[in-house]
Amino acid sequence: MSLDDAFAPWQQRMYEHAAGALDAGRMGHALLLCGPAKLGKRLVAEHLAQRVLCQSPDPAVRPCGLCRACALYRSRSQKDPIEQRPDGSLAHPWGHPGHPDAILVGHAWRMTPSPPRQQTVITVDQIRELSARLATTPQYGDAKVAIIDPAEDMNDAAANALLKTLEEPVPGRYLWLLSANPARLPATIRSRCQRLEFRLPPAGEAVAWLRSQGHADGTAAEALAAARGHPGLADAWLRDGGMALRREVAADLAKLASNAASPLEVAKAWTADESATQRLLHAADIARDDAAGLTDPRRIRKLAAWFDAANRTRELLRSTVRADLAVADLLLAWRDVAGEQAKGARR
Ligand SMILES: [Zn+2]
Fold it and tell me: 99: CA distance to ligand 1 center in Å?
């Protein structure tokens, strides 16, 4: 199977666009791949890297998947989004580092899917190591690729160190930054990179892709609407139970609005397991959806205030505060906001 078979249609378009620019010599040495998480930025970057490093004599077939460079590239057995599908599990333990001319920095390349925040910072030492390795002669072929994912994890010193590398381009050296939050990168870095922007695909294409991933029509459409047109997020929610959780949250909020459930009881249930944060994300999202269907500015303001409160409460859950009490306060407020709406709707 070729790697292309793993591409969603929007990923294929991004890849072909970038590959065309590479082949035509229109791509600078620094590229910023940005756009929402879970759209496949890393998958596209990996395929491009393999294309750049491939040693097939025929440029039209790169990456060929057959040459020594391709075999080396694919031998990397660190966390790899291609190996992760379809159940999200990791196929290999930490092992072979892969192609020596592919330099990968950032927690996205680690085995641990989501390390604690303090462990995700990219330091100046890591960037200096990257720059030193990028400056040496390639071990195979005539190119080297460095990829930083997620680039916004660089601290100030790391970003400053990277600027030097960005300002001194060397032929055959590519530096690619991946970011779902490019606004968090220093403007000096952004302005020195060519931008490849991933956008949400048209709804029809997204639903067709979700169906191709094995999801039924109805659930695919429901999840896509809940994820505001983001197929990668909808797919993740359908796989990891996120959609079922969202339906539960919506049902609980409806019960609270009609006084059919007690805020404290619901709060206890919401904070009894690991999904408390996810529930509050869904709840805030549902409030935003509700507000979108309203015309009364006063009610829209109340829902917006509740949306902010839900996000603040979610932040509080990281601290030592009693989670059930914080959430109970929030749900009590929901009864006031949404209960009034329910009455209004009946009038
Ligand atoms: Zn090859």
Answer: 12
- Give residue-wise pLDDT tens across range 75-95: 876 543 333 334 544 344 445
> How is 173-234 classified by DSSP, letter by letter?
EEEEEEES-GGGS-HHHHTTSEEEE--PPPHHHHHHHHHHTT--HHHHHHHHHHTTT-HHHH
| 63 CA distance to ligand 1 middle (Å) | 5
pLDDT digits (tens, 9 = 90+) for 304-319: 999 999 999 998 888 8
Q: Which CATH class is domain 3-197?
A: alpha beta
Whole-number Å distance, alpha carbon 55 to ligand 1 midpoint, is: 5
Tens-place pLDDT, residues 293-302: 888 999 999 9
Q: How far is the CA of 75 from the centre of ligand 1 (A)?
A: 13
Q: How far is the CA of 128 from the centre of ligand 1 (A)?
A: 29
